[in-house]
Design brief:
mainly beta, 2 strands, elongated
Length: 59
Amino acid sequence: YGTVKIPFPERLVGKNLKEVRIIPRFNASFFEVEFITEEEPRPVVKSDNARFYRPWFRQ
């Protein structure tokens, strides 16, 4: 069948690559590729001023 070449996205250079998913589509006539990276967890910022809109609840 031949060689398959998968271009590596430049935006992922320098990131920790965790997984590469090769997904066959349409009876393997072509493939989709997903690059899964590891990122450092970001802290969740909680705002004391945040309010949720609840139309059924009136103050």
